[in-house]
Predict the 3D structure of the following.
Amino acid sequence: MSQGALVLVVGPSGAGKDTLIAAAQQALGSEGRFVFPRRVVTRDAVAALEDHDSIDRDGFEAARLNGHFALDWEAHGLCYALPGSVDAAVAAGSIVVANVSRRVIPHALRKYGRARVMLITAETEVRAQRLAGRGRESAEDVAARLRHEGAPVPEGVAPVVIDNSGALESGIAAFVAALRLIAAE
């Protein structure tokens, strides 16, 4: 089997990262080469909006200290991680696709022989509608998220950029095509 890769899916809140990942999992999951790990997050999951394993801060810190995570980071006042199974999947030749913070890119690039960055973008108005539609945050919190674009992609990293402002089918098609190209490298 050819070399595995970790695909780091990044972008601002409301760009549609989780939606594209879920659609790619539907389209590619049966192929066996693609792996879509569940993140571990210190927040309860809203089943209709996100797919992650919830954990409290004490449990998160214990798991981190015991080496149970492949990557971990903090963002928006929460702790996030990818499970340790990511390491074995990449080593076995899988293409592992995960929504991460841009802050973890340098560490991931050092840790994995093949890590690719996919930057998902969307127009501000589209992101505002999506964030408001989640019903998870107040209007003030949504406005703050829209003002916060996050850390830049590190210098020297050339991400695959997918504009997810238009029809969902177009975003999904571009995302899946990009994953297939990465798998073919």
Remarks:
- The domain at 5-37+90-184 is CATH 3.40.50.300 (Rossmann fold).
